[in-house]
Write a structure and sequence with these properties.
Length: 149
């Protein structure tokens, strides 16, 4: 029998960075480098709820690009090297930094979505009727507190 209760004390940061299931903390979150597994092998949690979209890529680019651009600017101002030196130094720093952070940040966002029960925004719940208020009659205040003067 599979235990479907979430393990208490699991933080989205710990489980996400370790690329583990947000419910049990044991099963792998990914089936490849960035492809989410369909479900957890340990507890059976369906990962179809997860939609990190472009969030991880945005955060990784924001985190990695500033130090790499600062390094490239310092290199240019200090030594005025040829263009190929920038390609040999700055480009690998950018690629390695992005690839190293992308998977853990994607895992963190997926785990945070599960733990905080994130879902698509909806204006109205499908099975809930919106409250309807009667319009005030002529000569009444819109707040319903009485007649207008």
């Amino acid at each position: 029998m599979i235990d479907i209760t979430p393990t208490p004390g699991l933080s989205p940061m710990e489980t996400g960075i370790c690329c583990r299931c947000p419910r049990c903390g044991r099963g792998p979150l990914f089936q490849g480098y960035l492809t989410l597994a369909p479900r957890c092998r340990e507890c059976g949690l369906d990962f179809s709820f997860a939609d990190p979209a472009d969030g991880p890529a945005f955060f990784v680019m924001s985190i990695v690009s500033f130090p790499v651009v600062a390094f490239a600017g310092w290199l240019e101002v200090s030594f005025e090297p040829a263009l190929w030196v920038h390609f040999v130094t700055s480009l690998p720093l950018l690629l390695i930094g992005c690839l190293a952070l992308l998977r853990p940040l994607k895992g963190w966002i997926v785990c945070a979505q599960y733990i905080h029960k994130a879902a698509e925004a909806r204006l109205v719940e499908p099975n809930v009727k919106p409250e309807t208020k009667a319009m005030p009659g002529p000569g009444a205040c819109a707040s319903g507190s009485g007649a207008l003067k």
